[in-house]
UniProtKB/TrEMBL annotation:
The keyword Lipoprotein belongs to this UniProt entry's keyword annotation: no
A Pfam family it matches: FAD_binding_3
Alphabetic keyword roster: Oxidoreductase
Gene3D superfamilies: FAD/NAD(P)-binding domain
Residue intervals of the FAD-binding domain: 5-324
PANTHER family the record matches: 3-(3-HYDROXY-PHENYL)PROPIONATE/3-HYDROXYCINNAMIC ACID HYDROXYLASE, FAD-DEPENDENT MONOOXYGENASE
Gene Ontology molecular function, alphabetical: FAD binding; oxidoreductase activity
InterPro entries for this protein: FAD-bd (IPR002938), FAD/NAD-bd_sf (IPR036188), PheA/TfdB_FAD_monoxygenase (IPR050631)
Organism from which the protein derives: Paenibacillus rigui
Protein name: FAD-binding domain-containing protein
């Protein structure tokens, strides 16, 4: 079997894996990314990148570079109870330097990070390469065995990073345990052509039926996500598409034409709204980052921001690990020590909000009233800031920033 040697092997070329690879390559650490897909085209994934993501890019001096790629700026958000606006987000008030969120398809973001990383000779990436086994020596991870096309090969590394997402293979192979896990809600996604008179913004639609999130998407489309309680989607599918068409039109009349064109459930992508925290993210020679270590629900659209912030901290710790030639659990655990408190807070918010979004029929009736009242309090603005902004810059060495 062929064997390749590198310094850091990153399993998974999603946002967290690609950003970590770029930062390490810049620091002259040899890095090899393994991505199981053939390219960056993938099923619909997170596209809304919040001001906290842009703050992080700014800290790394990458914001201007990333914004050269196709995207759409979203400057406002609004909360509606049926057709009445009860609250708003003005991104201009959220952050001075990044007074907007952006909508950028994930393949575009990944391509941007790839092109930048490919400028460094210490960067390597293999697509269509799926991890099968972990190479262990004396209780330490020394790399992985990967199936690359028809070929199996060993990639040996001083540090192996699991950036392979919420269903992480590395997490399973290495028996990482969860500290907590929650799955109560599904978000059912679809897109329609952007309605002409619709402002280009994010809109949260609250009713005593399903709650719905809508956002302008790059390419003149509107992305819509409808929230259902965990078991509800299966029941809806059993009831058939005709009944669901009526539900959709009841949520908003803009969906009438789309509903009329439906013959089956194919245009819908369900996202399990999972939230979990892995108890300990590192073992000797190995660390989990991003969704593999700490998965957030779609509430607040912060998944990419949280995953990438962990990747940046991981880059800082890994640079230190190479300087000190120390790849132990204790060294790599510093990533978790720095990132966990903030992620716990976001998880706690998301749990509370999710309880309001999918709850008992009685509470559903009360929801519009409760949210209208909440929107009038200062707490509402405080929650927005807590979700959308990084509380402080990431504690990293300035050497990680680009010129
Ligand atoms: C439908 C949907 C909508 C979302 N909306 C938003 C949003 O608007 N904003 C937001 O911030 N977040 C959103 N999220 C969450 C966001 O997509 C994730 O939090 C983010 O992508 C996590 O990044 P990651 O790099 O940790 O993992 P991932 O993006 O999951 O990347 C993991 C990578 O690892 C690869 N991989 C998996 N297993 C293997 C293996 N065995 N070998 C090699 N490679 C492997 C996968 O192919 C993938 O490319 C959404 C998620 C979904 C599913």
């Amino acid at each position: 079997m062929k064997t390749l040697e590198t310094d850091v092997c990153i399993v998974g070329g999603g946002p967290a894996g690609m950003l970590l690879a770029l930062l390490l390559a810049k620091m002259n650490i040899r890095v090899h990314v393994l991505e199981k897909q053939k390219n960056f085209d993938r099923e619909y994934r997170g596209e809304i990148l919040q001001p906290r993501f842009l703050q992080m890019l700014e800290q790394l001096n990458l914001k201007e570079y990333v914004e050269r790629f196709p995207h759409e700026k979203l400057k406002q958000g609004a909360f509606y109870v049926r057709d009445r606006q009860i609250g708003s987000i003005n991104f201009q008030n959220v952050h001075r330097n990044s007074p907007y969120a952006i909508s950028m398809p994930q393949p575009v973001l990944l391509q941007a990070l790839y092109e930048k990383a490919a400028q460094y000779p210490s960067f390597e990436m293999s697509f269509h390469s799926s991890v099968q086994k972990v190479i262990m020596e004396d209780g330490t991870v020394k790399g992985v065995t990967v199936k690359s096309g028809d070929e199996e090969l060993d990639i040996r590394a001083k540090i192996t990073v699991g950036a392979d997402g919420r269903f992480s293979t590395l997490r399973r192979l290495m028996n990482f345990a969860f500290e907590y896990e929650q799955y109560n809600m599904d978000l059912i996604w679809f897109t329609i052509e952007h309605p002409e008179h619709w402002e280009r913004m994010l809109r949260f639609q609250i009713s005593n039926g399903p709650t719905c999130i809508m956002g302008s998407k790059y390419g003149n489309r509107l992305q819509v996500g409808i929230a259902f309680k965990r078991e509800e989607w299966e029941t809806i599918k059993q009831q058939g598409i005709e009944a669901f068409k009526e539900t959709i039109v009841r949520i908003h009349p803009y969906f009438k034409e789309f509903a009329g064109s439906l013959t089956d459930f194919k245009p819908f992508t369900p996202l399990q709204s999972k939230l979990f925290m892995v108890k300990q993210w590192a073992k000797d020679g190995c660390i989990l980052i991003g969704d593999a270590a700490h998965c957030a629900t779609p509430i607040g659209a912060v998944g990419v921001s949280l995953s990438c912030a962990t990747a940046v901290i991981a880059a800082d710790v890994i640079v230190k690990a190479f300087q000190e030639n120390d790849f132990s659990t204790e060294m790599l655990n510093q990533v978790q020590t720095m990132r966990e408190p903030e992620i716990r807070k976001i998880h706690a918010f998301q749990k509370k909000i999710e309880n309001v979004m999918v709850d008992s029929p009685f509470l559903r009736k009360m929801r519009p009233i409760a949210i209208t009242l909440l929107a009038k309090t200062p707490l509402f603005a405080k929650i927005q800031k807590r979700m959308l902004l990084m509380p402080t810059p990431l504690p990293i060495h300035p050497q990680l920033s680009f010129e």
